[in-house]
Amino acid sequence: QVQLVESGGGSVQTGGSLKLSCAASGFKFDDYGMAWFRQTPGKKREGVACITFTGNGRYFSDDAKGRFTISRDQANKISTLEMGNLKVTDTGIYYCAAASWCDLDEAEMEFWGQGTQVTVLS
User: Fold this and answer.
1) Three-state secondary-structure class, residue 104
2) How many C-beta atoms lie closer than 10 Å to residue 87's C-beta?
3) pLDDT beneath 50, residues of the chain
4) pLDDT at 8
5) Contact 6, 113 (CB under 8 A)
6) How far apart are CA 103 and CA 122, in angstroms?
7) d(CA 57, CA 41)
């Protein structure tokens, strides 16, 4: 049974940092690119970062570039999104997802987690 379980969400002040983790099981983790999406109030779900199955390539949305980093731990099957210099507009539900390659198109994702809430306070 495929599972992606996010953790690490919570509340933080503007300018602060949060680290999200995604624990994967039920599929061959190192054959999949991993991505993070978010659903912010009033907007469509959007991709913020992805990493290739080898971990050698990364891609970020314009808004995430320079503030977010993505990594993966192949041995423990964990994908991590580290977010810095957080803004109120980063508030939303963050989802972990897996695809055949590094992609920020949600239509390409094969597996999804349930999401974790991130709230940035002004």
Assistant:
1) coil
2) 13
3) none
4) 97
5) yes
6) 31
7) 30
Q: Are strands 10-13 and 116-121 parallel, antiparallel or unpaired?
A: parallel
DSSP annotation of 81 reads E
Output the pLDDT for position 41. Answer: 87
Environment class of residue 23 by beta-carbon count within 10 Å: exposed (0-12), middle (13-18) or buried (19+)? middle
SS3 52: coil
Instruction: Return the closest-CA partner of residue 92 out of 57, 69, 64, 50.
Output: 64
Query: What Cα–Cα distance (Å) separates residue 8 from each residue in 21, 28, 30?
Result: 6, 23, 22
How many whole angstroms separate alpha carbon 68 and alpha carbon 18? 10
Tell me 65's DSSP state: T
Per-residue pLDDT of 91-102, as tens digits, reads 999 999 999 999
Distance of CA 71 to the CA centre of its chain: 10
